[in-house]
Amino acid sequence: MNFLKTSIGIFGKTAGWFFRTSWKKRIVIILVILVAGFFLGREIFSKKGDGYIFDTVQKRTVTEIVSESGTVVTNDSVNIYSPTNGVIEKILVSNNEETKEGQILFTVKSTATREEKASAFAAYKTAEATLQQAENTLRDKVAIRTKILDDVKDHSKDESFTQRQTRTTAEVAADNAYDAVKAAEAALTSAQVAYQATQNAKVTAPVVGIVSNLSVASGSSITVNSLLTPSSPVLMIDGPGATEVMVSVGEGDINKIKINQAVDIEADAVSDKVYQGVVKRFDENGTVTESIVKFNVYIEVGSPDDKLKPGMTADVDIITNKLEGVLSVPNTAIKPYQKGRAVRKLGSNGELEFIPVKIGIRGEEFTQITEGLGEGQQIIVSLANEKVERKSPFGF
To answer: Sign of the C-alpha dihedral, residues 255, 258, 259, 263?
Structure first.
């Protein structure tokens, strides 16, 4: 009790003196207390232990993977467009319905006027006549070329200028006639499409499959798809082909990829399942996008289900190498050192020492050690208490 009274008395006298002294002295006293507290605290915490996390060099299984994100695709989906500008009259299928080849999917009623239909038909017939004329001209020019070539076939060494000029003219004429036929064929195709766009239509399934992405209803207005005026497909038919995930791999990883490598697949929208797959094919030539070279890799999903849908985002782990029973250490133990790699150990004097190593493959958790360490050696994985020299905010 006397000690407590004495302590309170001393504290009161000290506090009274502190508040009676000048403000400059008070600032100096406060700074001295702060600095002394900083060094005392650092000394206390530095003696709490080295703070090292250790591990031993062991033989483990090291699995190297290439991880990427991609998109689920089906390699035999068919987009179905309307061949007619008009209005959907009837829809005879629904999403997820199985269709047969030749089955009617929907009907379209044209909205073209009588004049538009007549004009399109006339253009179509004109294109037919033009093609017929071009084919006749081609036959004539080919016959002339054949006759001239027969006339000069025995004069390859002594062909006169006139003969060469005649032969060249005939060859050019035949080539031009051939080009004219191709142009007439293209014009006829375009005229056929334009004429069809004015007619009522029944659209049938070109393949066996499952209907998906039905985007219209009865009474919806639709247009013909073209390069100049693209339109959305009325629906899609997904065939029985394989479901795949397409990912883009960088040039640093593409040489690790091999056909039939195992792949773990997780879809963002399917949280309760990891799908298994294999690498089926990959690009031999890269594509440059924003100065980055990428190679497409196609992974076949082994047992897809209804939850895994085309267009979904998926994360893949491609197992590019797997070694069993090899010396390894945790990945965090490997540090850059003198333009190479090293691990750390605690020396006899309590200081960190670096051991240069050569590494093999790097897995998700462990890295293979090919040279520099022996089984059972103790190494430092990380520094829990960060026992390194660092300056304080005050510069010391």
So the answer is: negative
Torsion angle of alpha carbons 386, 389, 394, 396, nearest 10°? 150
Give start and end residues of each alpha helix (H) in the chain: 2-20, 23-46, 114-152, 161-196
* Beta-carbon contacts of residue 153 (< 8 Å; ≥ 6 apart): none
C-alpha of 36 from chain center: 58
Residue with tokens 């300056």: 391
Residue 101 has pLDDT above 80, yes or no: yes
Beta-ladder partners of 212: 236
Residue pLDDT, tens place only, 179-222: 999 999 999 999 999 999 999 999 999 988 889 899 999 999 99
CA–CA gap between residue 128 and residue 134 (Å, rounded): 10
> Can you say how many angstroms the Cα of residue 269 is from the centroid of all Cα atoms in its chain?
17
| Contact predicate 55/327, CB 8 Å | no
Q: How many CB atoms lie within 10 A of CB 11?
A: 10
pLDDT confidence of residue 103: 95
